[in-house]
Specification:
eight-stranded mixed beta sheet, two-stranded antiparallel ribbon
Length: 335
């Protein structure tokens, strides 16, 4: 007979995370469901994120801009906690399975980081699947970073203090861009990389996938394979570290912050990457956040571990880039 006292994996989900998932399901239902067809799915996902992004600190500058790239003018959202002065800058790339999301997907979290850290943030879009696949998104973000290094001073940015990072798919692209710049001889352009529950390893048989990929923890094995194969349809490219950074030689890369969610089927992507960095004696910080799932960062208004992740990223950026004119999290908030 089954032991009723046995702790099931789902019992490890923190109540705040469970409540956030329940509320998100309600929001999606109120919007009419997840949508049909890629454009509707994208629109519904952003509408849901708009609700989650309510509140948080105000910025001195919070505006949509564009940066020239090889395929198009890249849409970005530009955040400055202080209007004056030259600020270091963090370039952030949203998650969304390489298919959905945009510059304001993590609007609240980025305003929180900017306020706590004191630097500027550029939340950049990138080319999405199915219209584009690897390496187009990486090449686009490399161009964004190179443009900032050459022209960021016109935006009041310290072009010697640039970091990049992202969540999930965005982390993959961020690390791909960092590796590309290193290989082009421009490693000095970046002073830090942050990976939040990143897509970093083409491993569909990891311990975390086997334990958590059955459907109770948001991502399923089938969905993960669809996402990975959709982004990198050519099997020969799946060993390219610009697509999956866990096996990269980190020589020449800047310090790296790694955030992993305990109950994420792709958690072990991050742990494998940390092992690679440790073996190479490369500077990194690894934080595993208990009781939370993939994409927990987006619930910083209601989940304490997401708030801690915001603070951890802010601390990392302060150490990697310094800060100027920060509000220390004390700026005026939105209602």
């Amino acid at each position: 007979m089954p032991n009723d006292n046995m702790v099931k994996p789902t019992d490890r989900i923190h109540p705040q995370q469970a409540d956030a998932l329940k509320r998100n399901a309600e929001i999606v239902a109120e919007l009419g469901g997840p949508g049909e067809g890629i454009e509707e799915v994208r629109a519904r996902a952003e509408a849901a994120r708009t609700i989650w992004n309510e509140g948080g600190p105000d910025m001195a500058v919070d505006e949509a801009r564009a940066i020239p790239g090889p395929f198009r003018d890249v849409p970005v959202q530009f955040y400055r906690p202080a209007a004056d002065g030259t600020l270091p800058v963090f370039v952030y790339l949203h998650g969304g399975g390489f298919r959905i999301g945009g510059p304001k997907t993590n609007d609240r979290q980025l305003r929180e980081i900017a306020a706590a850290w004191g630097g500027a943030i550029i939340s950049a879009d990138y080319l999405h699947v199915p219209e584009h696949t690897f390496p187009d998104p990486v090449d686009e973000i490399v161009a964004v970073l190179e443009w900032l290094a050459d022209n960021g001073g016109d935006w009041g940015l310290d072009t010697g203090a640039i970091a990049i990072g992202g969540a999930s798919a965005g982390a993959s692209i961020a690390l791909g861009a960092a590796i590309t710049l290193r290989d082009k001889g421009r490693a000095e352009l970046l002073k830090g990389v942050a990976s939040l529950y990143g897509v970093l390893d083409y491993n569909l048989e990891s311990d975390s996938m086997n334990e958590l990929g059955g459907g109770d923890f948001m991502l399923t094995n089938e969905y993960v394979q669809m996402v990975y194969d959709g982004y990198v349809p050519n099997a020969a490219d799946r060993s390219d570290p610009r697509a999956f950074a866990a096996k990269a030689d980190p020589t020449g890369l800047p310090p790296i912050f790694i955030a992993a969610a305990e109950l994420d089927p792709i958690r072990d992507d991050s742990l494998t990457f940390a092992t690679t960095l440790k073996a190479a004696k490369h500077f990194f910080v690894l934080e595993v956040y208990p009781g939370v799932l993939h994409a927990f960062f987006g619930y910083s208004g209601v989940v304490d571990e997401a708030k801690r992740c915001v603070n951890d990223v802010s601390t990392f950026l302060g150490r990697a880039l310094g800060s100027r004119g920060g509000q220390g999290g004390q700026g005026q908030g939105r209602a």
